[in-house]
């Protein structure tokens, strides 16, 4: 996955999900996260997306960003990065909704603003 560190976007240092080391929460299965930690992680990573939305223009969506992965360079446009982020969040929203409903809770509605 492309990370905000690799794309040099501001805000990556404020989220626990995208550390410079490349080792995130998902790498520590022995430490389950609590609801408040997950909420913080989602909000902190979405602030990066919101910041990009505020700065990027339709004219700059075609700009290529070549993040390095060791000796390999991958080229992605800003538009493809945004598409991936939205798709990833939609996927995770579905996962969370399924788990919530399995335990008798209301599923997530991604179209309503979160209550913090």
In short:
The chain is mainly alpha-helical and 116 residues long.
Protein described:
- The protein is mostly helical.
- The protein contains 2 helices and 4 strands, in the order H-E-E-E-E-H.
- The protein has a two-stranded antiparallel sheet with strand order 1-4. Strands 2-3 form a two-stranded antiparallel ribbon.
- A hairpin with a 2-residue loop joins strand 2 and strand 3.
- The longest helix has 25 residues, at 78-102.
- The radius of gyration is 16 Å and the shape is globular.
- The relative contact order is 0.13.
Helicity range of the residues? 25-40%
Order of helices and strands: HEEEEH
Mean pLDDT: 78
Main β-sheet: number of strands, strand sense, barrel status? 2 strands, antiparallel
Proportion of residues in β-strands: 5-15%
Count up the helices. 2
Task: Please give the number of β-strands.
Answer: 4
Strand order of the largest sheet: 1-4
Distance between the termini: 28 Å
The low-confidence parts are: none
User: Rg to the nearest angstrom?
Assistant: 16 Å
Structural class of the helices, strands and pairings? mainly alpha
Shape, per Cα inertia axes: globular
């Amino acid at each position: 996955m492309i990370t905000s560190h690799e794309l040099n976007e501001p805000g990556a240092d404020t989220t626990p999900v995208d550390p410079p080391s490349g080792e995130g929460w998902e790498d520590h299965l022995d430490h389950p996260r609590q609801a408040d930690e997950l909420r913080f992680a989602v909000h902190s990573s979405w602030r990066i997306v919101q910041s990009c939305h505020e700065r990027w223009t339709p004219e700059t969506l075609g700009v290529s960003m070549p993040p390095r992965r060791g000796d390999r360079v991958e080229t992605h446009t800003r538009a493809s990065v945004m598409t991936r982020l939205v798709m990833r969040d939609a996927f995770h929203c579905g996962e969370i909704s399924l788990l919530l409903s399995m335990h008798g809770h209301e599923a997530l509605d991604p179209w309503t603003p979160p209550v913090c």
